[in-house]
Amino acid sequence: MGQMDDLDGHPLYSCNRCRNPITLRQNLLSKAFKARSGDAYMFSEAMNVVLGVKREAQLITGRFVVADVSCRNCGEVLGWKYLKAFEDSQRYKIGRFIIEKSKILKEYS
Ligand SMILES: [Zn+2]
């Protein structure tokens, strides 16, 4: 964040499998998430993705309605999007994307 990042050009994250651009570095909100495969990042926005069927999920932090997020190009499941939170303290996650670190690649445009 700040000036050092400005020198990096325009970093973005792309699909590790097909290099489809998925989100911009500037949309990164947190690196402190966990998914089945390991570390995951939270983003405010994602592009070139397809949302799966809504489902209820019991996660470590509570119960949510989520939808899987897949790459629009290759179909790889990258993570999920929070659609509803059942606990007030978790409402800030609604509309956010969790993308597994192992599924994306940081690139510079
Ligand atoms: Zn892909």
Overview of the molecule:
The structure is a single chain. The protein has 109 residues and is mainly beta. The chain has one domain (3-108): Peptide methionine sulfoxide reductase (Metal Binding Protein, Guanine Nucleotide Exchange Factor, Chain A, Beta Complex), CATH 2.170.150. Helix content is 4%, strand content 57%. It is built from one helix and nine strands, in the order H-E-E-E-E-E-E-E-E-E. Strands 3-4-8-7-6-5 form a six-stranded antiparallel β-sheet, with no helix packed on it. Strands 2-1-9 form a three-stranded antiparallel β-sheet, with no helix packed on it. Strand 3 (28-35) and strand 4 (38-43) form a beta hairpin. The protein is globular, with a radius of gyration of 14 Å. Bound molecules: zinc ion. GO terms for molecular function: metal ion binding. Belongs to the yippee family.
